Every structure is written in C-alpha cells, then in structure tokens.
Amino acid sequence: MDATHRVVLITGASRGIGRATAVMLGERGAAVGVNYVRDLAAAEQTAAEVERAGGRAVLLQGDVADEQAVLAMFDGLEAAFGRIDALVNNAGIVAPSLPLAQMDATRLKRMFDVNVFGAYLCAREAARRMSLDRGGNGGAIVNVSSAASRLGSPNEYVDYAGSKAAVDTMTIGLAKELGPRGIRVNAVRPGLIETDIHASGGQPQRAAVLGAQTPLGRPGTAEEVAQAIVWLLGSAASYVQGALLDVSGGR
Ligand code: NAD
Asked: Any idea where the Ketoreductase domain is (predicted)?
C-alpha cells in the first residue's frame, strides 16, 4: 500500500494486532489515529513506534462502545490530520472461557457492546465522513472478525463467536451499501494469534497449544494479520469488496 498522506484510524491500537497494523502503516508513511481505552503508556509506545517507522500518529482515547467517545475520536483524527481515508475496526474483547449456562448478562451485554455495537458505531462514523455522496473522498474499512465466527467456539466463547458473526454480516452488508459511495469494506478473520487477548480469556497458552494443531502447525503473529489488513486497505486490493479473509493457518 502506498499510504503516504493516508489517514487511518485504528481502534484498540495500544497493543496486539492493532499496534502491529499501526506500525506497518507507519512504515508506509501513513498518519495513524491510535485509539486506546485506558492503557495510555502502551498507546504512547505504539505512537512512538509509528513515528520511528516514518509515519505520524495521534493518540485518541475512547471506548468504542460509547457513542460520544467515538464521535470525539473521529473529530480528533480530523483535527489532527484534516481528513480520514480508512478505518480499521480492530478493538475487541473476549471474556473467561465458560459454557453459556454460566455466562452472566453483564458479560453477554458487554461482549456485544464492544465487539458489535462499537464496530457499527465506528463504521457509521467512517461512512458519514468518507462517503462520496456526503462530500468525502471515499476510502476503506477493514473489520477484524475472527475464525470463531464460523467455528462457534462451543463451551468457551459462544458469545464472542456470535459477536464476530455479526461483524462478518456487517462487512457483507456494508460492502454492498458503501461500495457505490466509494468505500471498500472487507474483514480479516484471524485464527490463533499470539497476543495478550488470550490472557483476558483466562487461557494465556491457548494460541500456542491450539495453534500447533492447525494445518500450518503454529500460532500466527500480530504482524501476519497486519499484513493482510494493510493489503486490504491498499490499492493492491482495489477490486476486493466484501471479502472475509481467513488468516488462520488453515484452522
Ligand atoms: P489485544 O487484547 O491485544 O487487543 C485488543 C485491543 O482492543 C486492546 O488494545 C484493547 O485495549 C482494545 N479494546 C478493548 N476494548 C475496547 C474498547 N471498548 N474500546 C476501544 N478499544 C478497546 O488482542 P488482539 O488479539 O490484538 O485483538 C485484536 C482484534 O483481533 C480483536 O477484535 C480480536 O477479537 C481479534 N482476534 C484476535 C485473535 C487472536 O487469537 N489474538 C483471533 C481472532 C480475532
């Protein structure tokens, strides 16, 4: 991707796949909005790595499940860089591995608030600002879904899997709705990727253990997912629309 002068907002960019994507875009000269919730020091590290790589960065605090925070985040990006060209809907959560019968309502609601409602809110704001028919310049959205959306994740994360299935469906719908308005919309579906998200699920070794059972025999890295995201954002993928791209080692 020639991201020179491109302005990209990445949600949940303080670590993991979001950070790897931010740095890769920085290497290509992009201006990156680094969204984070609480972990300011980690977000500052992402921003520093983006700038060291040759890009520009602005820190944008905000919970994607909070509408006012999302509006402020997009306003902040445009205040810093004057426009928006792309969104990476990356922020996401898991919760401790449990069968559905043991999940409480607070957990279920938060899962959908962050992974679905947050992704829809951010996509909506991107559509409002990038659509050709609203005075925008067009652009690209990449949603970070999960292989769980087609596997279902029984006995551990059926809530998470369902939330990511909603992200897949949103991707297909928005690809059709926003394509005529100059916006490409696609998703990546990572498999078992070595990031800190597995600790929040109470299974820090999950990626290593289950990754070894994939056809490629290992877990993936955040950088391998970032490569796919950056490709989907860029002109090399100019005719790719509504794709759900598995980055799962064949899982
Ligand atoms: P991670 O936990 O390292 O990163 C998730 C990021 O999202 C963090 O920076 C976190 O602070 C942020 N975040 C969480 N809630 C937020 C909120 N309400 N508002 C804004 N930011 C918020 O994990 P990761 O593996 O890098 O995950 C990135 C994306 O990839 C997620 O959507 C996740 O579901 C997806 N994914 C990961 C894997 C994997 O194996 N690691 C597999 C499939 C999909």
From this structure: 6-183
- What is the distance in A from the centroid of ligand 1 to the CA of 128? 24
What is the rounded CA–CA span in Å between residue 56 and residue 51?
Answer: 5
Side-chain-side CA neighbours of residue 1 (13 Å): 28
- Taking the C-alpha atoms of residue 26 and residue 11, their distance in angstroms, rounded to an integer, is 15
Distance 91 CA to ligand 1 centre (A): 5
CATH code for the structural domain at 3-247: 3.40.50.720
Residue owning the nearest CA to atom 18 of ligand 1 = 63
* Domain range list for the chain: 3-247
pTM: 0.98
Q: Which of 36, 120, 157, 160 is catalytic?
A: 160
